[in-house]
Every structure is written in structure tokens, then in C-alpha cells.
């Protein structure tokens, strides 16, 4: 399983948001972050480089917000580097899934 390194940042930001909105208490924050990092350890996180950012800056056939365009650009870049692998793009976001399909990726989750 692969994901953009952005996934880790997004997950940590949700944990911080939960702390700030009092959905979790300070003592739970460290535990939550530790569990999150353990869960992410089973995922190969792809660093966001200039090639990925350049691709994310180009128009996609479906309007995407910035972070979604980075996720899609990461997947497209990864797909090119793994041409012989079965490759599926997992998302529950309808627009992101549609964009991925239009760009030739097999999408699961929508």
C-alpha cells in the first residue's frame, strides 16, 4: 500500500484539530499520535517532490482542490514507476475518484 506523504500530515492535523476542539484531551493526544504513526508504518509514504508538485499544478479533467491534486499526482507518478504492478486508487471522494478514472487509474471506493 502506497500513499502520498501528505496522508501523514493530514492525519496528524485531524488529531490536532480534535485536540483543539476538545474532542480529545491532552493526555490522549500523544497516544492518538503514536497509534496513528503505528498505523501509517504499514504504508509506504511517497515524498512529494518537484515532479509531483508540477503535475499537481496542471489542469486535471475534473476540478480538484490543491491537496487532492497532490494525491492524484502522487498516484499517477507512482503508477508510472510501477508499470507491471496491479494498481488501484482508493478513495471515497467522488470528484477525486472521477478524476483518477479519467486519468486512467482503476478506482476502488466510489
Can you put this structure into words, describing what you see?
With 110 residues, the protein is mainly alpha-helical. It has 5 helices and 4 strands, in the order βααβααβαβ. A two-stranded parallel sheet has the order 1-2. Strand 3, helix 5 and strand 4 form a beta-alpha-beta unit. Helix 1 runs antiparallel to helix 2 and helix 3 crosses helix 4. It is elongated and about 45 Å long. It starts with a strand and ends with a strand.
Chain-wise SSE layout:
Layout: E1 2-4, H1 6-20, H2 26-40, E2 44-46, H3 50-56, H4 66-81, E3 88-90, H5 94-102, E4 106-108
Parallel strand pairs: 1-2, 3-4
Which structural traits does this protein have?
single chain, 56% helix, 5 helices, 110 residues, mainly alpha, two-stranded parallel sheet
Q: SSE order, as H and E? A: EHHEHHEHE
End-to-end distance = 18 Å
Major beta sheet, strand line-up: 1-2
Assign the structural class, choosing from mainly alpha, mainly beta, alpha/beta, alpha+beta, or little secondary structure. Answer: mainly alpha
- Helical residue percent band: 55-70%
Summarize the model shown:
With 110 residues, the chain is mainly alpha-helical. It has helices at 6-20, 26-40, 50-56, 66-81, 94-102, and strands at 2-4, 44-46, 88-90, 106-108. It has five helices and four strands; from the N terminus they run βααβααβαβ.
Amino acid at each position: 500500500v502506497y500513499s502520498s506523504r501528505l496522508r501523514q500530515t493530514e492525519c496528524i492535523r485531524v488529531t490536532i484539530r480534535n485536540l483543539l476542539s476538545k474532542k480529545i484531551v491532552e493526555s490522549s493526544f500523544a497516544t492518538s499520535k503514536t497509534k496513528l504513526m503505528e498505523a501509517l508504518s504499514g504504508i509506504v509514504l511517497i515524498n512529494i517532490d518537484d515532479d509531483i508538485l508540477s503535475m499537481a499544478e496542471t489542469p486535471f479533467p475534473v476540478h480538484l482542490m490543491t491537496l487532492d491534486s497532490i494525491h492524484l499526482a502522487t498516484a499517477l507518478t507512482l503508477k508510472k514507476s510501477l508499470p507491471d504492478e496491479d494498481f488501484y486508487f482508493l478513495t471515497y471522494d467522488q470528484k477525486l475518484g472521477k478524476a483518477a478514472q479519467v486519468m486512467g487509474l482503476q478506482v476502488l471506493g466510489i
